[in-house]
Structure formats: structure tokens, C-alpha cells
């Protein structure tokens, strides 16, 4: 019986375990080691060691990390990416909150449909959703013309919308918005409405009821949604690549360029490690805050 | 007071829905527009669809995408189902970490580590040259997690005493799994498989890294069209892809009504 149980455990867990060790864990480890190696003569990686007089000599370096410290442009790009991701998260919170609140307060039979309508665009192709904004923000579009009609009417020079940081933020908000609505809804739906009624009876106005009760109670949902938006936004390369101009590239574009175009893999690996560290930091912060929130609640 | 508040809520909620859907509607509408520019309505035409179906590069790419998506869906459903069941039945440490991390980190990082890995393996062992097969292996790696989550959620809704009853009646563990557990979690497995299919056929970032020079998939082809020359052919292929996704979602909701719910 016990043996059978253990056999079942191995039969079930080993196949996926082996697959993921092979095609996720080992590649990740190789990437980490690559950060300490020299670039190859024709791109890629130089040999990790060579043999001299029968002895193995390791050929590893910290130079790739030095480059990041010595040239401020890389750190600046990292901060700029964090800024873009942060702004995206903020706009997502502002847009998702009223919607999530409304869904949570709707009749039960309507909620599933309203949620499905939020998720549905997420299932259409990622590139198509970005492409849609190329059309809308393009110089010929009705939207751009309308904006510029107002803008020039106010006496300013006509604006370019596509290939700007603005377009990048719009695209990132568009793609990530469902990830903010869902956790926020899951949180708001659980709120005890009698708290708000009690506050009203005690004379709190609408703003006070929101700011003193709903907002603090919804913070766990905000944090969960922020992590789900901020983390992929920080590592984004396709949206700035398609909607952004030369001035709106992010860390992801630099990584893509190092790995696929310049083929300086060690430096690309260093940048990837920095990105991983940023992501893990945010995730750790998120779970810390969430745990604190649970304790207080 | 409360009335005024809810009007504002409705206005902002409806504008958010418009924000979500207008772009997609515009793409579809312009796919029928008789003008090379996606700017104003000129007249109705099917010519972009016609051009699309005569575009050999696009058709080849679509064939590749379909093949990879079917294979990735089958393989990741196999691994993901095992992982989901194992994660529900046993207290495991490494497997949940390996299953969930690829979902949580930016896709870019998975792409970078896999391309370095494949090229190194190719240099050392002479196998796994970048191409359709490496795309498939990469897709399976990130789809396993999604299948595992759906299956695990389904397992949590299952009554464990069913399996115990089968065992008491003399079924071997394997029989109990095949005759009791599997039929109960089948909707979850099908939903997971459809999810993996959609994720694979739509994937751009990881495919972009692991495709190498020769191989093309639909998203890669769409990307190069967007980057080089935008024509309403892109709108046509986009509309067809949306239709395909919609059909899959309808199937998934028929098979497993709860699998699409937000709490899963």
C-alpha cells in the first residue's frame, strides 16, 4: 500500500518534473552562468574553460557586471522601464477600480458575463491588440485628427501620437488591464456592505466611506493586481518595439538586441539577471505586504 | 446621492468596456475596407481575405502554427494533467515552483534562457537546431503550468471519497485513476488543452527568440508585416484569428462552464 502510494507519486510527478528541469531550470541556470563568461568571437559565448599543461583553467569574468555599474545609461534605462511599468500600473488601477466595483455590486447573474467581457479581449492575439493601437494612434486616424484639431485649435503644434512613450503606455495599459480588474473584483466582492451602511448611519459622506473603509480593505487586491501588471510590463519588449519610437525603448528591447542582434550573450544575460532580480524583488515585496495586510485584517 | 454615484460608475465602466472593445472592432471593420490605408471607410470588399488566402508565406506560417499548437496542446496537457493531479494529491515542493515560475516571470526571460540553451546544446551535441521543434519544446514548457492550474482546480472540487470507494471495491490505484479520477476531471483537462492550444498559437515573444532564422509562425509573420508594411491583410488575418479564439472559447464554456470563471 505504502509502496504503491509512493510509486503513484513518482509516476505522476516525475514526467512533468523532468520536462521542466530540462527546459526551464537548466536553461535558467545556463543563463546565469553565461553572465560570467566572455562573449565568443562571432557572438554567443566563448569557451568556459581551456586546458593548459593538462590542467583545467576556468575562463570566467565579472567584466559584464562592471559594464552596468560603470555606464549609467543602463541603470537609467532600467529606471525608465520601471517608470513606464509603474505608470501603466497606476493607470490600470484608476481604470479598473470603478469597473471592478460595479461588477462586484451587480446582481449575481450578471457578474459572470461582465467578467467574461473583461477577459475576452485578453484571449485575442497579443500582436493584434497592439496592432489595433497602431491604427488608432496613426497619423491618418480619426482619433489622431480629432486630438490634433483640438490641440492646434488651442494654438499648439500638431502632435504625433504613434511611436511615442504615450503610445507605449496606452498599449501596455490595454494589454494588462484585465490582470488588474480580476484580483480587484475578487477582493471587492468579499467586502461586508454593512460596514458602509454603518458608516453612513454615523454620518460619513461618500468620500469618507470610500477612503476610510473600501480603499484600505481593497489594498490586498490592489497589490495583487499591481504585481500582475507591473511584472510583465517591466519585462515588455514587443509593445515598445511596435508602438514606441527610438526614445521609448525599455530594458526588454535592450536585452532582445543583445541576445538576437549584437549577440553579446554575456551582457544580455547580465541584463536578464537584473530584470529577474527586479521581478523577484517586486514579488517578494508584494507577498510581504499581502501577508501584513492579512495580519492586520 | 447614491443615484448620482452609480451614474458615474456606469459611465466609467462603459468607457472602460469601449476602451477594451473598440480597437478590436476597428481592426475587424477595416479588414472589409476597400482602401490600403486603415484611415477612413471607402467601401466594402473581401479582397484582403482573398489576398490572404493567396499569400503562400502566410499560409505556410499558419500551417506551422497549427501543427505546433496541436502538438504543444497534446504534450502540455499530458504533462500538465500529471502535474495538476500530483500537486493536489501530494505535498510537493519543487514541482509547484517549476510549474508556476514560468507563468509568473516575464516571457522575455524564458525566451532568452531557452535560446541560449538550445544553441549550446546544438553546439555540443549537434541536436535541437533552432526551428519548429525548438518552438514546440518551448511552448510545452510554458503551457504545462496553465494546464496544471486548471486541472488542480478541478481536482479540488472533486470528492476524494469516490477514489476511496473504488479502492475499497478492489480497484488498483491505476484503475481508480483511469475509471474514477480521469472522468471527473475530464472537463478540466479539455479546458486546459484548449487553453494551451490558444496560448501556443498566439505566442509571439518566446517564439520570436526560439524560432531561429528559417522557421515562421503566424504571429512571427504578422509581426514582420506590422514592422515592414502595414496592409489590411493584417486586419484580415487578425479577424480570422479572433474568430478562431471565439469558437474555442465557446467550446470551452460548453465543455466546462466553470473553467472560464475568474476564480480559476
TrEMBL record, chain A:
GO CC list: plasma membrane
Record-linked Pfam families: BPD_transp_1
Domain of life: Bacteria
Regions that span the bilayer: 12-38, 82-103, 115-139, 159-186, 217-239, 267-290
InterPro entries named in the record: MetI-like, MetI-like_sf
Subcellular location: Cell membrane
Domain ABC transmembrane type-1 stretches: 78-286
Protein keywords: Cell membrane, Membrane, Transmembrane, Transmembrane helix, Transport
GO biological process: transmembrane transport
Membrane topology: Multi-pass membrane protein
CDD domains (UniProt xref): TM_PBP2
N-terminal signal peptide: none
Family to which the UniProt record says this protein belongs: Belongs to the binding-protein-dependent transport system permease family. CysTW subfamily.
Protein name, as recorded: ABC transporter permease subunit
Organism name: Craterilacuibacter sinensis
Amino acid at each position: 500500500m505504502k509502496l504503491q502510494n509512493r510509486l503513484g507519486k513518482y509516476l505522476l510527478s516525475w514526467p512533468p518534473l523532468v520536462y521542466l528541469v530540462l527546459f526551464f531550470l537548466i536553461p535558467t541556470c545556463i543563463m546565469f552562468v553565461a553572465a560570467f563568461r566572455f562573449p565568443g568571437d562571432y557572438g554567443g559565448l566563448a569557451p568556459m574553460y581551456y586546458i593548459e599543461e593538462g590542467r583545467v583553467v576556468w575562463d570566467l569574468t565579472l567584466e559584464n557586471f562592471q559594464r552596468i555599474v560603470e555606464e549609467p545609461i543602463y541603470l537609467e534605462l532600467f529606471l525608465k522601464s520601471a517608470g513606464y511599468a509603474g505608470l501603466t500600473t497606476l493607470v490600470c488601477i484608476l481604470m479598473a477600480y470603478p469597473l471592478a466595483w460595479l461588477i462586484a455590486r451587480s446582481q449575481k447573474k450578471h457578474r459572470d458575463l461582465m467578467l467574461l467581457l473583461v477577459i475576452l479581449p485578453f484571449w485575442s492575439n497579443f500582436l493584434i491588440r497592439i496592432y489595433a493601437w497602431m491604427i488608432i494612434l496613426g497619423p491618418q486616424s480619426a482619433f489622431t485628427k480629432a486630438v490634433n484639431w483640438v490641440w492646434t485649435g488651442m494654438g499648439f503644434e500638431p502632435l504625433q501620437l504613434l511611436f511615442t512613450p504615450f503610445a507605449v503606455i496606452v498599449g501596455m495599459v490595454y494589454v494588462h488591464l484585465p490582470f488588474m480588474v480580476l484580483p480587484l473584483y475578487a477582493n471587492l466582492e468579499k467586502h461586508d456592505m454593512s460596514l458602509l451602511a454603518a458608516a453612513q448611519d454615523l454620518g460619513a459622506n461618500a468620500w469618507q466611506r470610500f477612503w476610510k473603509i473600501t480603499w484600505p480593505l481593497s489594498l490586498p487586491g490592489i497589490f495583487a493586481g499591481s504585481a500582475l501588471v507591473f511584472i510583465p510590463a517591466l519585462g515588455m519588449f514587443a509593445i515598445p518595439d511596435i508602438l514606441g519610437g527610438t526614445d521609448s525603448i525599455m530594458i526588454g528591447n535592450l536585452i532582445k538586441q543583445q541576445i538576437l542582434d549584437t549577440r553579446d550573450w554575456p551582457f544580455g544575460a547580465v541584463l536578464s539577471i537584473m530584470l529577474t532580480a527586479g521581478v523577484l524583488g517586486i514579488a517578494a515585496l508584494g507577498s510581504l505586504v499581502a501577508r501584513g495586510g492579512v495580519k492586520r485584517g | 446621492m447614491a443615484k448620482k454615484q452609480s451614474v458615474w460608475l456606469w459611465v466609467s465602466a462603459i468607457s472602460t468596456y469601449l476602451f477594451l472593445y473598440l480597437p478590436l472592432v476597428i481592426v475587424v471593420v477595416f479588414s472589409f475596407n476597400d482602401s490600403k490605408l486603415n484611415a477612413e471607410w471607402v467601401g466594402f470588399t473581401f479582397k484582403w481575405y482573398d489576398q490572404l488566402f493567396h499569400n503562400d508565406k502566410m499560409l505556410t506560417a499558419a500551417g506551422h502554427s497549427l501543427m505546433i499548437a496541436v502538438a504543444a496542446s497534446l504534450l502540455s496537457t499530458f504533462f500538465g494533467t500529471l502535474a495538476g493531479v500530483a500537486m493536489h494529491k501530494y505535498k510537493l515542493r519543487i514541482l509547484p515552483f517549476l510549474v508556476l515560475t514560468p507563468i509568473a516571470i516575464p516571457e522575455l526571460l524564458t525566451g532568452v534562457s531557452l535560446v541560449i540553451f538550445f544553441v549550446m546544446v546544438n553546439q555540443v551535441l549537434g541536436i535541437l537546431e533552432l526551428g519548429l521543434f525548438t518552438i514546440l519544446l518551448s511552448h510545452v514548457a510554458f503551457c504545462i503550468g496553465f494546464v496544471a492550474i486548471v486541472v488542480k482546480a478541478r481536482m479540488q472540487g472533486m470528492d476524494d471519497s469516490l477514489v476511496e470507494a473504488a479502492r475499497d471495491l478492489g480497484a488498483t490505484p491505476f484503475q481508480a485513476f483511469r475509471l474514477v479520477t480521469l472522468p471527473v476531471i475530464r472537463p478540466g483537462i479539455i479546458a486546459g488543452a484548449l487553453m494551451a492550444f490558444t496560448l501556443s498559437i498566439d505566442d509571439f515573444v518566446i517564439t520570436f527568440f526560439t524560432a531561429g532564422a528559417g522557421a515562421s509562425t503566424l504571429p512571427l509573420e504578422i509581426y514582420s508585416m506590422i514592422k515592414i508594411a502595414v496592409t489590411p491583410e493584417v486586419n484580415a488575418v487578425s479577424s480570422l484569428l479572433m474568430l478562431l479564439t471565439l469558437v474555442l472559447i465557446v467550446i470551452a464554456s460548453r465543455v466546462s462552464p466553470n473553467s472560464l470563471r475568474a476564480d480559476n
